[in-house]
Amino acid sequence: MLRKITLSMLFIAFFSVSISALEVDVDEIYNAKKIDFVNYEGTGGKSETVDQIQSIGYQLAYLASKGGYNERFRYHMKYSVVRVDGAGGKEKYSADIIFIDKDARVDHIKNVRRIIASYLEQLYGYTPAQARALAVYVTYYNALHRSDMEYFRSRYREKVMNYITEKNAGIAVRYDQWPGKTALLVPLTVESKRGKIGTIDPFEISDDKVKKEVKKEQGTTGDRGELVRIKEKEIAKRKDELNRDKKITEEKKTEVEKRRTDLENKKEEVRREKEEIKKITDPEERKKKEDEVKKKEITNRVTEERVRKEEEEVRKKESEVSKTEEDLQKKEEETKKDKEELSGTPDNKTGETVQDKTTTAEIIKKEEELQKKEQELDKREDRLRDKQADENVYGLKIYYLEIKEYLEGGHYNNTLYMINAATKKIDFKSPVTNICGRRYDIFSGGIVVITHQGSHVSGHRLTLIDREKLTLVKTGTDNIFWRSFLEIKDGFIYVIVKDGEDYYLGKFDTDLKLVAKSKDRVHQNSFITFYEDSIFINREDMTIIVLKKGDLSLDGVIKP
Hints:
By secondary structure, this protein is α+β, with helices and mostly antiparallel strands. It folds into 4 domains: 23-217, no CATH class; 232-330, Methane Monooxygenase Hydroxylase, Chain G, domain 1 (Up-down Bundle), CATH 1.20.58; 344-383; 393-558, YVTN repeat-like/Quinoprotein amine dehydrogenase (Methylamine Dehydrogenase, Chain H), CATH 2.130.10. It is 39% helix and 20% strand. The protein is built from 10 helices and 21 strands. The protein has helices at 26-29, 50-66, 109-124, 128-144, 149-155, 158-161, 208-216, 221-277, 283-343, 354-379, and strands at residues 23-24, 73-75, 79-84, 94-100, 182-189, 393-394, 397-406, 412-420, 425-429, 441-443, 446-452, 460-465, 472-475, 486-489, 492-499, 502-508, 514-517, 528-531, 534-538, 544-548, 554-558. Strand 11 (446-452) and strand 12 (460-465) form a beta hairpin. Helix 2 (50-66) packs across helix 3 (109-124) and helix 8 (221-277) runs antiparallel to helix 9 (283-343). Residues 1-21, 191-207, 345-360 and 380-390 have low confidence and may be disordered.
């Protein structure tokens, strides 16, 4: 039973998959309101860590990403998921449906949300903060519409309805009614400007009733703050889209106007030719000219119909642009109001004072600081993971470097594999065949390794490998000591650079460009230690020196 949850969050970074054409429809989810869930509050039972709970969602996402639509994938007969395809019109939703099956032992809504959040984070690329906020609304949404088949039928496509019944649709408010009786619907849409990560449309939650319900629940300040940030990003993106649409529409309008002018000139030309034909006395010549004019008239009529349709399309597009502009202005005002409320600006309509909101403002500030740290961690793909977990294990992905052959002089030829931790099988191997170093490091931008240039005598380079496909992304130009350590800190790569017969500490950016090199020669087999803004390393004569992490300049010498 998922009862006792450890207090420590374990950072896990999971592999990302390409976002499907079907995306979570945030609009639909955000119309949910507060529901009071009844959770198990007793003692005893099996204790599960947060990491273990989240892994359920990750594994469901992994199974779903590898399979097709309309196929149900099960996790130990406890949980399952089906992705219903988006065939059909846009007026109704497709869905991802997460089932809590009969053998499940989940008994707290927090754990249900953790499963949903890790699923959404993994499958759709949401940030942890976005996924957590969405999971809260998913549970509310499904509890609010529990067993309401009429509602679901009016909102979802027929294929979705094939997977739910009155007994399992949504989620009950009591934990003991979840196993075997829960089908959590995550609404999806195929509309290109709604529901996609980075283009989320969360503005329909501006309904005052929904806002008040969300505000009633303790601990939702962060979710509300996250929503404001999503709104701001969405507005900026929509402004860019609107400006592009405006430009395209204006260009199209100019083009159509030119076609209209050309058409009117041709019609006038035909009119003049008709007048000239009246003057022709030769019957044959007159008939010939009349036939030519008729052809031109037919062509003009076809062109006029085409131009008329294009003019109609332009007018329609202009109307859409105008409506979008008005809608965007309203959303900007709404978002500004939401932000002012969260930041502590007085709101005369609510009657709240600055003093009333001081605590909230402080909380928001702290949450923003935490969010910033989280984003920094996300850049490095620092993982919510067990401290004892291997650094090369990411969720269900294991990046394994196999020694293919040992060569004279301590050189190796290595092969990089992607291993599925769940199936204990190799998914695929990297096509990069010239990996020589035994050291490598992983960050959000890929996997950094050391490679040779065709042979081990021709020099070695830093090489970036794609995390998903294990394909070559780019190779640096600087010569690297083949046996060097390889460390990534704060978005920079630290490695030993070989210059002739000398060795130096090199600092590279994630584009594999050298941004700093120590003036002091270092020992090629030195270890490296980081502490705050300092780097400890052995100089060429084995003396321990301290370098500044910023520019690798000398900051001290440590003598025994």
